[in-house]
Amino acid sequence: MISCPIDHAKSLTLPIASPKTFVMKKLSLILLVSLFSSTVFAVGISAKRNRGETYKVAHLRNMSLKFNQPMGPFQSPEEPYIGSSNNVWDVKVPLKKLKIKEIPDLGSYADLENQFKILRDERFINKNSDFPRRSTWLYPDDGCFARAELMKTRLVDAHLPAPKKIFIFGDLWVSSKNARYGDISWWYHVAVTYRVGDEAYVLDPAIEPARPLKLAEWNHLMGGDKKRFDFSLCHPDTVDPRDDCKDIQAISLEKALEMQEPYLDYEWERLIELKRDPQAELGAFPPWLMN
User: Fold this and answer.
1) How far is the C-alpha of 234 from the C-alpha of 51, rounded, in Å?
2) Closest listed residue to residue 153, CA positions, set 240, 212, 239
3) At residue 48, what are phi and psi to the nearest 5 degrees?
4) Is residue 218 assigned to a domain?
5) CATH number where 143 lies
6) Which of 99, 146, 214, 276 could cross-link with 259 by S-S, CB 3.0 to 4.6 Å?
7) Predicted confidence pLDDT, tens digits, the chain (291 residues)
8) Cα distance from N-terminal residue to C-terminal residue, the chain
């Protein structure tokens, strides 16, 4: 073993940082790492909107949580999130202004419907369970970002054109037999979209497991006929409203599965809470095949 001599006289002259300086540097490093990781690596952000809360307040609340900062007393929910000018939230527009022609055309409705059923029915998630699981269609409360990302990944793996991600913002409300109280409130929702000719369709089995929805129907089911909602049509790899809508780095399949994993337990628990059989419904007998 080769030892390195130490000059003790010189080592004693090195400056020693005070405990306060050390703590401040450590906190600065933690904050820097936190900000970098949160802006570069998408991890998904909750879509839940509290009862009585507007979508703008929910948006600001979630953006504040991103940086572990409380909403300031003089901060208005009208204020836009300060970040990339191309982030999903900032580029939203009314439905009539969406550039539908940017959505990939799958060619035929029959092909679209076939892919929808594959995405809906295939049990591809291997967890510590007696059987593989589907995406969490029966827990619509949250996790739409994970479901949409897994749909996109599977479609690309099947050598299909990458679908666009479509985000909707507003005081969203949807009726669901899979909800605790029969309905769900979101401040945003996301799914994947294809086009067939001039008609845009949204693939969203958590809302409608029977078939792809026309974009206007998707909007209608969340209350868009009564309130104005805004939309963002984004890059296939966009995950949540914090991301750049046009230029975003793809996350791995492992990361997408990691985002989905906690909602698998919530889905199982929800079915028990509703006095239904998770072993059957999450296995070979999903409700859409039993009706």
Assistant:
1) 28
2) 239
3) -65, 140
4) yes
5) 3.10.620.30
6) 146
7) 434 343 433 333 334 444 444 334 433 433 333 333 333 334 689 999 998 999 999 999 988 754 433 333 333 444 444 445 689 999 999 999 999 999 999 999 999 999 999 999 999 999 766 889 999 999 999 999 999 999 999 999 999 999 999 999 999 999 999 999 999 999 999 999 999 999 999 999 999 999 999 999 999 999 998 899 999 999 999 999 999 999 999 999 999 999 999 999 999 999 999 999 999 999 999 999 987
8) 75
Burial of 194 (0-12, 13-18, 19+ CB in 10 A): buried
Residue tagged 């805004």 (tokens): 230
Does a structural domain hold residue 145?
Answer: yes
